[in-house]
């Protein structure tokens, strides 16, 4: 099992699989599963510095599509969540989100609350395409800033990763 995992890890590290790995990990990390995609983007860019823009754009696309999936899940879950709509915290949060509208999806990049926010936007039946556009803007800004900051902070890479 360990040998198989090592071969899989080596295969995914190859440049021809790098962008597809970034896409898959960023897509999955945008769902409600706890997974961070920034280390994968940073690793690919550290190994292939000329891949900065493709990696940031592919991560943005994967993470935005994952956010769009969250929107649809929220949209479909509207009736299930309706029975919990009488809580005071729920009411305040809903009023705040309704006031912001699709622009609230700019915050989709935030850890812990960003992904559920996309689902709530769908549940509130905010317009899909404006939400996706705002998600993409926020997620692009996150990948651009995080990857740039990591490259600046760790120009030699992480020594324990062989960088």
From TrEMBL:
Keywords tagged on the record: Membrane, Transmembrane, Transmembrane helix
Sequence intervals crossing the membrane: 52-73, 104-123, 143-161
Residues covered by the VTT domain: 52-147
Pfam family, any one: VTT_dom
Signal peptide, first to last residue: none
Superkingdom as given in the UniProt entry: Bacteria
Name used for this protein in its record: Membrane protein
């Amino acid at each position: 099992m360990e040998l198989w995992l090592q071969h899989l890890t080596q295969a995914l590290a190859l440049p021809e699989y790098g962008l597809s790995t970034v896409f898959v990990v960023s897509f999955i990390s945008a769902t409600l599963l706890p997974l961070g995609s920034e280390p994968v983007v940073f690793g690919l860019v550290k190994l292939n510095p000329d891949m900065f823009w493709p990696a940031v754009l592919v991560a943005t696309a994967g993470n935005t599509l994952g956010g769009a999936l969250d929107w649809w899940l929220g949209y479909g879950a509207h009736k299930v969540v309706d029975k919990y709509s009488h809580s005071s915290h729920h009411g305040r949060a809903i009023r705040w989100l309704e006031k912001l509208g699709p622009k609230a999806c700019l915050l989709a990049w935030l850890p812990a609350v960003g992904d559920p926010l996309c689902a709530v936007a769908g549940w509130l039946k905010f317009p899909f395409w404006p939400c996706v556009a705002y998600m993409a803007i926020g997620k692009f800004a996150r990948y651009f800033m995080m990857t740039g900051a990591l490259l600046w902070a760790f120009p030699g890479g992480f020594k324990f990763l062989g960088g």
